[in-house]
From TrEMBL, chain A:
Gene: LOC110498060
InterPro entries on file: CDC50/LEM3_fam
Cellular component annotations (GO), alphabetically ordered: apical plasma membrane; endoplasmic reticulum; Golgi apparatus; transport vesicle membrane
Entry keyword annotation includes Metal-binding: no
Residues that span the membrane, as ranges: 48-74, 333-355
Ranges of compositional bias, category Polar residues: 150-162
Name of the protein: Cell cycle control protein
Membrane topology: Multi-pass membrane protein
Subcellular localization, as worded in the UniProt entry: Apical cell membrane; Cytoplasmic vesicle, Secretory vesicle membrane; Golgi apparatus; Membrane
Pfam family, one: CDC50
Organism: Oncorhynchus mykiss (Rainbow trout)
Principal place of residence: membrane
TrEMBL record, chain B:
Protein name: Phospholipid-transporting ATPase
GO molecular function: ATP binding; ATP hydrolysis activity; ATPase-coupled intramembrane lipid transporter activity; magnesium ion binding
Family (UniProt): Belongs to the cation transport ATPase (P-type) (TC 3.A.3) family. Type IV subfamily.
Superkingdom to which the source organism belongs: Eukaryota
Positions contributing to ATP binding: D423, K424, T425, E653, F695, K719, R762, T842, G843, D844, R934, K940, N963, D964
Gene name in the database record: LOC110505678
Residues involved in Mg(2+) binding: D423, T425, D960, D964
Organism of derivation: Oncorhynchus mykiss
Lineage: Eukaryota, Metazoa, Chordata, Craniata, Vertebrata
Record membrane topology: Multi-pass membrane protein
A Pfam family this chain is assigned to: Cation_ATPase
Keyword terms: ATP-binding, Endoplasmic reticulum, Magnesium, Membrane, Metal-binding, Nucleotide-binding, Translocase, Transmembrane, Transmembrane helix
Chain segments carrying region Disordered: 494-515, 612-640
A GO BP annotation: phospholipid translocation
Length: 369, 1298
């Protein structure tokens, strides 16, 4: 390479065809390689979309989607779901008084009983949800207001929670669990009673474990380690402002469901995507070796310990009983959508077919003329 | 490959740099201490001076150390950061990152928001570092080169490094060494004080340039002794004008001598053919002209990019609208809320929260501004350039050169050209000037044999050439032989009797100059003229009346031989000595032989000069007398002057010198003061050269002033354009008896000139003038004044030359033929079919220009020719209007197929004036072709500028010579042809090709591809960003406009940066809508690019609309599917993200016209990358990335059938409209491009039928008043690209049509 300090020129010499190498001993042939890649002759598939070529695709989609849609629709329709609103907006509603007299700082809890009847029995496992409406759990600042390392059992975060938790970071002592999400934990208690035709009330057993994601329960949420006694562990922290009891008393009966790994708490901490949402509350398990349905047809009473305020922002509280299929809960939308899209595709396929006959012929005439 | 990579990265940085920056970094230390002192001139004295003040001055000049690096080891990080932060796009990133650190606005964690900026900064920094390191290495190498500097201490020249060279130092250089700094030539070992340099490093020109020792320098023995040098040099301050150097040298005696450009040795040139030179450094280091000229590649903004910027602005508008919507929505939402448990208690008013939210949203939706698009475009263009450069069709075997892409960012402009402005000479023609015929003293010598030779040669040339070059490197001489053998096989041998070439293996076949090609060298003399010349040696010579015409003839050839700046070199001393990499390695073999030869000439020449009185006494064996005639004579027995190699700045000169030599009037040597000429019957004569008044474009002529060896008179020989010379040769008032004769000669010559021009020959007139000594003295005085003045010397010199060149006696004229390049007519025809208007701008005469235009099919026989020649503005105006009316009539009448306008230079002058240019444009727009003849370089650029600015069209200028430079620079795309006339055009061009025919593939194929690829990629980018960002926007309606996102922030940032970045790149690089063959065969396809079909505003908005629809589908199908369920934010976002990815990738598949295994690889790779990334992330990330911790989300989602159900439905529904749209459009009203693409898929048989059909329909539409008539159809498919079976089909086409 010639010695030269002129970069622009030097660059030119890097380019083929420049004259810098003229006469130099190392004359190379500058003929470009005649390879398929360099000459842009790579074998290629050229998908040209014409009525003729896309026809099959439309029919295939149509024929695939319609059965899928029907399947989904049927599945969804077979799922039984029962929903009852217990907010108490109406004067006639049993929870009306509770909803009126409420504030976070109430010490006395208010209870109300909501009667309802099931027309159809639930055969398999029943999932009991509570539903909230107009509750923006996805608000950006609300979502941020948590400390994942604290919830993961990190000692330092326990003592000095993340700044994101402000203003629920510390009262006089650091708050555990800190942040707005934890602070607004849903604290109604729901109980379900079956009214026998003879008038007696049978409490329905509600399983409170197994409602949270396995990963959340076992990986993401951990109590601070070091001591089995949670009271000791959480010493030096205070309870969230709106809570009535500290975190280590969420379920004193079961050490595996207490503290940060309380499943109600974990479920609440997974913030809902949309302002109207439901959260799994309890599972009513199918009775083993018994042919009787999980929830037989008949009269029921929902006993609510009414704590959670929603009236101030026009929120609603619901209790939902639902079975679950392989496609999740009851939602006819997907099935209908599949059927619609499938039929639209099929119709378009027919339209394209006619177009293909009209214009495709012309095109082939083009060729043969 | 590595080089290419380096080069491309470098360019990338440059492009980015310019794109980002408003202010380009200043490279190196360019400031000059001199400027600060505010002095207009620089004074240079010998560095050996004792004077302290002067030493101080010398010290103030910059040294020869060159630093082109930007950074030092320590300053790299701060300085690089600082520089990068100056860039506009980076500021956007930083602004976003900074916004994110404001607590009330932040959307993501701070560390995430700085990822984009970090990535960009890091990539750029690494690239800068590497680049700077390379520069540093190269600087170090150059500064460490060694040259010989005179040392006062040791009283001799000692080796010093280049960086230690200072202004005022004396540097001694040997042959083949590189000049370390700009120096004034003080001594040359050449007895005439001449030295030759090669400026290839500077401007790429490989011919030798002659430099002269400063005039009248007192000779101090054999070598200059620096101690005795006490002169003072005053010269200009450093500037970048390579062709100008002004100053004077003041001797201790106070005498002043003017300094010229030809006294200056420029840094980085190479000394050639001269054993030793000594010079004094006047400019060093960064102040040298070479360094001042060192600016990087050109940066032009392409039309597409301008269009793109508009749409980027639209994106900004869209962004602001979206953010405003969100801000207002948030404010209203907050106001309607009362006490809530999910709101963090806050005292900020809803309005203020809305304001904060505006900025949050800007962070969230930042991707909408496609910053990565700019980077992608740069990368794509680099790859496009790579492909263009590697196109084997642009390879020129003869010159072993490929296409050079010098501007790297306007590839897509090649696909949008509407007007092509072409130079004629060297562009359409080969610029291999061959003497064809001449007229002397009013008598025409047709040179019939010569014409025949040229015809025969034509067919044979290609074969010979290719032959030569294949083995050039290894066996030059052998290949030369084969070339000459080829020539003689055409039986030239018997015709000429000149077969010296055959047994003289000339080792120097300069690659770029055609001067040595036998076609130009071997001119067959006209027998009649030879006969006349023979009289010269016959006793009749003394008869007076016979000699009158003979004097003309001798003078004519004398003028041909000496009126030029041709450099003569001898084959024994190869000019192109091995170009070694460093002076240390240069073979310092002294050029003894050359010097010897010159001395030999001196010894032979000078004594003869003294005994000139009796030229007949010469006993030279080669004497004309003894030979009688050279017909049938065997080859001379000894190697002799015939093997001299002539190198001229313009090929015409060489052609004329060769022509003169054919008549035994041989230029044998040249020095500063003498020319050695061999005349028939007189042997070698030394002619004293008094002055050369070089050629310039305003005078259009050049002259030499010599003392005639025979008469001892001062004679001026002038050679120039016929128009000028004919005017100057106006009969002088006092010429009585010769007047009649002169008048006759002028008349006859004019007639012959017109004939020549009609034949398409280039004409030059030769004239002379005898000066009396008193006249000469007077002129000389004023000329000397002009030469030594520093200010406005050019004007003074011009004036002085004009004073001399008057009252000329016309001797005769020459006709030089310049053949058309191969495939020029085909190329022009293809361009015209492609809807490109071709203009030819030439300095030639009208007749010549029209002739060439006919030859290259620019002008058809059916065309109506409109000529515009007028003398005044008023006439011009009237003419323009008249012609326009005529065109309108013609258009209405429908008979003629088109109009061609021919304008001459003078009319063009008028037409370009403010008030007439509208009319001119209106007229020329309706013409199919325009030929501007007799136009100056300035006019050329004016025409281009006018058309470009007024008609707002894309222009391309193509040319090969220095006179095309301004036009090339003005046009949107400038193309240089690397040909015979040096490299100026190439250096100023955007693309440099070697033949005109390459233009066809460059525009029709690469231009089309580059444009459609880039346009589609840009649209895709916009689509991609809008589609993705809108998903986030729709979510705002369901989260209280709070700026929440339903995706993990890492995934969000990486979505554009990693997951979906590679496929569009590949799409922009490799997509191919129509095959190259079809594009060439159907030039009409080019029109889609011309009309910007691929990227219209409507296409942009349609794409936006589609993106909007797709995002709606992509958001709301999951929304309804998950509405009311227990899905959390990330679980909701997961199917949205996944289907967005699928939609975006599949959208590209729909849009792609070709899919190769690379596409499949990248598309599948991107999808896999996304899914594996999210999966792995959802398993490993336990507490990371708050608040959007993805732990378990995607793992869980991807195990649920609902996820796939949603994704499938979303993807299908989102892509359905576009899919359908494409299918319907392609079936119902397919575009030309698509029809062509469909044709590509047919088998050869059908393909051929289809092609035929296409051409028929095209022809039919044309018959209805458009461009091409049916007869031309069969020529449209050029042979070279046709596979065999298609050739038959072409024949069929012909028969169908007939």
């Amino acid at each position: 390479m010639m010695a030269s300090s002129y970069n622009a020129k030097e660059e030119d010499r890097h380019q083929p065809g420049a004259t810098g190498h003229v006469g130099s001993g190392t004359m190379t042939n500058k003929m470009p390689d005649n390879t398929a890649f360099k000459q842009q002759r790579l074998p290629a598939w050229q998908p040209i979309l014409t009525a003729g070529t896309v026809l099959p695709a439309f029919f295939v989609i149509g024929l695939l989607f319609i059965p899928i849609g029907v399947g989904l629709f049927v599945t969804s329709n077979n799922i039984k779901e029962f929903e009852i609103d217990y907010t108490g907006v109406d004067m006639s509603s049993p929870c009306y008084s509770c909803s009126q007299s409420y504030s976070w700082n109430n010490t006395k809890s208010c209870t109300c009983s909501v009667p309802f009847s099931l027309d159809q029995p639930f055969e398999s496992n029943v999932f009991m949800y509570y539903g909230l409406s107009n509750f923006y759990q996805n608000h950006r600042r609300y979502v941020k207001s948590r400390d994942d390392s604290q919830l993961n059992g990190d000692k330092t975060s326990l003592q000095s929670p993340s700044k994101e938790c402000e203003p629920y970071r510390s009262s006089d002592k650091p708050i555990a669990p800190c942040g707005a999400i934890a602070n607004s934990l849903f604290n109604d208690t729901l109980e379900l009673y079956y009214i026998d035709p003879n008038g007696s009330r049978t409490a329905i057993p509600l399983v409170k474990k197994g409602i949270a994601w396995w990963t959340d329960k076992h990986v993401k949420f951990r109590n601070p380690s070091g001591n089995n006694n949670l009271t000791v562990v959480f010493q030096g922290t205070s309870k969230p402002v709106n809570w009535r009891k500290p975190v280590f008393e969420l379920d004193p009966s079961d050490s595996d469901n207490n503290g940060f790994i309380n499943e109600d708490f974990i479920v609440w901490m997974r913030t809902a995507a949309l302002p109207t949402f439901r959260k799994l509350y309890r599972i009513i398990q199918k009775k083993p070796n018994n042919m009787t349905p999980t929830l037989p047809r008949g009269e029921y009473i929902l006993e609510v310990t009414y704590n959670y305020p929603v009236r101030s922002f026009d929120g609603r509280k619901r209790m939902i009983l639902s079975a679950i299929s392989w496609m999740g809960g009851k939602n006819p939308f997907l099935g209908i959508a599949y059927i619609t899209v499938g039929s639209v595709c099929f119709c378009l396929g027919l339209v394209l077919l006619s177009i293909h006959y009209r214009y495709g012929k012309r095109n082939s005439a083009d060729i043969s003329s | 490959m590595e080089e290419w990579l380096y080069w491309s990265l470098r360019h990338l940085s440059l492009g980015l740099g310019v794109m980002y920056s408003l202010e380009r970094p200043v490279q190196g230390r360019s400031s000059c201490s001199k400027d600060r002192l505010g002095r207009k001139r620089r004074t240079v004295v010998s560095s050996l001076t004792e004077d302290e003040e002067l030493t101080e001055i010398l010290k103030s000049y910059s040294s020869n150390k060159v630093t082109t690096t930007k950074y030092s080891f320590l300053s790299f990080i701060p300085k690089n950061l600082f520089e990068q932060l100056h860039r506009f796009a980076n500021i956007y990133f930083i602004f976003l990152a900074a916004l994110n650190f404001v607590p009330v606005v932040n959307a993501f964690q701070p560390e995430i928001s700085i990822i984009p900026i970090l990535l960009v900064l890091a990539v750029t920094a690494v690239k800068d570092l590497w680049e700077d390191y390379r520069k540093h290495k190269s600087d170090k190498f150059i500064n460490g080169l060694v040259c010989e500097i005179y040392s006062r201490k040791q009283q001799m020249y000692v080796d010093q490094r280049w960086q230690d060279v200072h202004v005022g130092d004396f540097v001694r250089l040997s042959c083949n060494e590189i000049i370390p700094a700009d120096m004034l030539l003080l001594y040359s070992s050449d007895p005439h004080g001449v030295c030759y340099i090669e400026t290839a490093n500077l401007d790429g020109e490989t011919n030798l340039k002659q430099r002269q020792v400063v005039r009248d320098l007192p000779r101090q023995g054999s070598e200059l002794t620096p101690e005795n040098f006490h002169s003072r040099i005053e010269c200009e301050n450093p500037n970048n004008d390579l062709s100008r150097f002004r100053g004077f040298m003041e001797y201790p005696s106070k005498a002043r001598v003017g300094l010229h450009n030809n006294n200056l040795l420029l840094r980085s040139c190479t000394i050639r053919n001269t054993e030793t030179v000594i010079g004094i450094v006047v400019y060093a280091g960064h102040e040298t002209k070479a360094m001042k000229n060192n600016n990087g590649p050109r940066y032009k903004r392409s039309k597409l990019e301008r269009r793109l910027n508009v749409d980027v602005l639209w994106s900004v508008v869209l962004l602001v609208i979206m953010c405003l919507t969100a801000a207002i929505g948030h404010g209203l939402w907050l106001r309607n809320l009362k006490d809530t448990s999910f709101l963090i208690p806050d005292t900020t008013s809803p309005a203020l929260s809305g304001f904060y939210l505006f900025w949050t949203m800007i962070i969230v939706l930042q991707v909408l501004i496609p910053i990565s698009l700019y980077v992608s475009i740069e990368i794509v263009k680099l790859c496009q350039i790579f492909f263009i450069q590697n196109d084997v069709d642009f390879y020129n075997e003869y010159m072993d050169s490929r296409i050079q892409c010098r501007a790297l960012n306007i590839t897509e402009d090649l696909g949008q050209i509407q007007y092509v402005f072409s130079d004629k000479t060297g562009t359409l023609t080969e610029n291999k000037m061959v003497f064809r015929r001449c007229t002397i003293a009013g008598v025409e010598y047709p040179h019939e044999e010569n014409a025949r030779r040229l015809e025969v040669y034509e067919e044979d040339e290609a074969m010979g050439c290719s032959h030569t070059l294949k083995s050039r490197a290894s066996a030059k001489s052998l290949s030369c032989k084969s070339l000459s053998c080829n020539r003689s096989s055409v039986s030239l041998h018997t015709l000429t009797g000149h077969s010296e070439g055959e047994e003289s293996p000339s080792p120097t076949l300069p690659r770029h100059s055609a001067f040595s090609s036998p076609m130009e060298k071997d001119i067959v003399p006209d027998p009649f003229l030879v006969q006349k010349l023979n009289c010269l040696s016959s006793p009749l010579f003394l008869l007076r009346d016979a000699s009158m015409e003979l004097t003309y003839i001798v003078d004519f050839f004398m003028a041909l031989a000496i009126c030029n700046t041709v450099v003569v070199s001898s084959p024994n001393q190869p000019r192109h000595v091995v170009l070694a990499s460093l002076p240390g390695m240069v073979s310092r073999t002294p050029l003894k032989s050359l010097e010897d030869i010159k001395m030999l000439f001196q010894r032979f020449g000078l004594p003869r000069f003294s005994t000139l009185s009796s030229p007949h006494t010469t006993e030279s064996p080669r004497s004309f007398t003894q030979r009688g005639s050279w017909k049938g004579e065997g080859p001379p027995s000894e190697p002799r002057a015939d093997e001299l190699i002539y190198e001229a700045e313009s090929p015409d000169e060489a052609a004329l010198v060769h022509a003169a030599r054919a008549y035994r009037c041989t230029l044998q040597g040249r020095s500063l003061e003498r020319l050695l000429v061999e005349l028939p019957g007189m042997g070698s004569l030394a002619v004293r050269l008094l002055h050369i008044l070089p050629f310039d474009s305003s005078r259009k002529r050049m002259s030499v002033v010599v003392r005639h060896p025979l008469t001892n008179q001062v004679v001026v020989y002038t050679k120039g354009a016929d128009s000028v010379i004919m005017d100057l040769a106006e009969s002088p008032k006092g010429a009585e008896q010769s007047d009649g004769r002169q008048g006759h000669i002028r008349e006859q010559t004019q007639k012959h000139l017109d004939n020549y021009a009609r034949e398409g020959l280039r004409t030059l007139c030769i004239a002379k003038k005898v000066q009396t000594s008193t006249e000469y003295e007077i002129w000389l005085k004023r000329h000397a004044f002009a030469e030594t003045s520093i200010e406005n010397r050019e004007e003074l010199l011009l004036e002085s030359a004009q004073r001399l060149e008057t009252n000329l006696t016309l001797l005769g004229a020459t006709g030089i033929v310049d053949r058309l390049q191969e495939e020029v007519p085909e190329t022009i025809e293809a361009l015209q079919r492609a809807g490109v208007k071709v203009w030819v701008l030439t300095g030639d005469k009208q007749e010549t220009a029209i002739n060439i235009a006919c030859a290259c099919k620019l002008l058809r026989t059916t065309d109506q020719l409109l000529t515009a020649n007028c003398d005044s503005k008023e006439a011009c105006k009237a003419l323009l209007l008249e012609l326009r009316a005529e065109v309108e009539r013609g258009e209405a009448a429908e008979g003629t197929s088109g109009f061609t306008l021919v304008v001459d230079g003078r009319t063009l002058d008028f037409a370009l004036q403010e008030d007439l240019k509208g009319d001119f444009l209106e007229l020329s727009r309706r013409c199919r072709a325009v030929v501007c003849c007799r136009s100056t370089p300035l006019q050329k650029s004016h025409v281009v500028q006018l058309v470009r600015d007024q008609l707002r069209v894309m222009t391309l200028a193509i040319g090969d010579g220095a006179n095309d430079v301004s036009m090339i620079q003005v046009a949107d795309v400038g193309i240089g042809i690397s040909g015979q006339e040096g490299m100026q055009a190439v250096m100023s061009s955007d693309f440099a090709i070697s033949r005109f025919k390459h233009l066809r593939k460059l525009l029709l194929v690469h231009g089309h591809w580059c444009y459609t690829r880039l346009a589609n990629m840009i649209l895709y980018f916009f689509y991609k960003n809008v589609m993705y960002v809108n998903l986030l926007f729709w979510y705002q309606f369901f989260c209280g406009f709070s700026g929440s996102v339903m995706t993990n922030s890492w995934v969000l940032i990486f979505f554009n940066l990693l997951f979906t970045s590679a496929p569009p790149l590949l799409y922009g690089i490799l997509d191919k809508d129509v095959s190259a063959d079809t594009l060439i065969k159907l030039p009409e396809l080019y029109k889609s690019g011309q009309n910007s079909k691929a990227y219209l505003p409507s296409t942009f908005w349609l794409t936006m609309l589609d993106a909007l629809y797709q995002s709606l589908v992509c958001f709301f199908i999951p929304y309804f599917a998950y509405a009311g369920s227990d899905a959390d934010m990330l679980s909701f976002g997961s199917p949205i993200n996944a289907s967005a990815l699928l939609i975006i990738l599949l959208h590209q598949v729909i849009e792609s016209r070709t899919l190769t295994w690379l596409h499949v690889l990248v598309l599948v790779g991107s999808a896999l990358f996304y899914f594996s990334f999210t999966l792995v992330f959802s398993v490993v990330c336990v507490t990371c990335s708050p608040p959007t911790n993805p732990l378990g989300v995607d793992k869980l989602q991807m195990s649920q059938p609902l996820f796939y159900g949603v994704c499938a439905l979303t993807t299908v529904l989102a892509l359905l409209p576009r899919f359908l749209f494409h299918a319907l459009r392609n079936s119902i009203s397919p575009s030309d491009t698509l029809k062509a693409a469909l044709m590509d898929q047919l088998n050869p048989d059908n393909y051929c039928r289809r092609m035929q059909h296409w051409n028929q329909t095209q022809a039919q539409s044309k018959a209805r008043g458009l461009i091409i008539n049916v007869e031309d159809l069969d020529i449209k498919i050029p042979d070279f690209i046709l596979p065999k079976e298609l050739k038959e089909c072409r024949a069929a086409t012909g028969s169908v049509l007939s």
